[in-house]
Amino acid sequence: MITTLEDVKIEEKKEPKLNDVKQELSEDVFRPSRLRASLYLLSGLLQTVISVYFLYYVQVNALYYFYLPAYFLAGTTVTSLFILGHDCAHESFFGNKRWNSFWGHILFIPSFYPYYAWKYSHNAHHQHTNSLRAPANSIYYDNTWIPLTIKQYRILKKRYPKRAFLYRLTRTLLPLGSLLHNYNYHYNPSLYKESHRKNVYFSYAVLFTYLGFLGTALIYFTGSVYSLFHYLLIPAIFFQFWMSLYTFLHHTSEKMKFYKEENWSQYKGQILSTRNSLMPAWLSSLHFHIDYHIPHHLNIRIPSYKLVEAQEQLRVSSFKEDLSEEKFTWKEYFNAIQKCQLWDDKNEKYITFKEAGV
Is the pTM of this model over 0.70? Predict the structure, then answer.
């Protein structure tokens, strides 16, 4: 029963729906463009050619002091390809489903991600963003950087101390966490629905066939088994630096919340629990504006080449006060690692291992 003016205000201020936000964007930002997609694809392939040539140059000239920069550059361009493949998995890159599937499989090869396995897992992340309803080892709920609650961690530490140690380690060494996430979730077909496994196995076949072909060609033309590491494995490991940085910061900060199932909503997950950690313009362009993450979570059909336009429209929308975006800083990154370790579900905030007494 409404009895006071304050009650009236609360009643009137109902939580918005995602559709309310979408309606303030132009129809054009949802429309795929074959031309812009092709230009982005050419850009990603050009980045790859440059990075592979640099790897080749430092190898044949034995420039060992340039190996690390070459690997970092290669990992950076693998990230660019992955982001384009990410768009394909959302079927937003090209307007054609088969084109998206074809290029998605190809673009995921350098990062060692099986396309359909990742697609099903990632779609679940979008459907349940920052929801604490996540059964152990479930592909079909948000399984990306979901913190354990204090109670969950204490139980884990008591029953499986090695897993508890690994959790602590991966909340600090983020690339390791990202790497293990790929291995544990996307290479375990038993986690997937029976109806999805055919596609998952197909992606395994494509990935391993192409990697086998590339590996054989590298050994044949270079005469060195180390070429497998030089051109494939090490760049894929360096890629995990970027993969972990982006995925962690998109939904993790002291200001971000996680919600129990009964309190969660699409608006809370996609708008209030998603943020733009804006990179320098050159890096944002190199990585096809993946740092503009709020419009992507508003609607996965907004392609990467229209994320900036969509964000500009959101900044002048009725919902601008609910948008969280700030420029990326290393201070922010390390602060999130140090402070965002466990979830205190009673006080609804992040807490450190030390503060939790564990």
Answer: yes
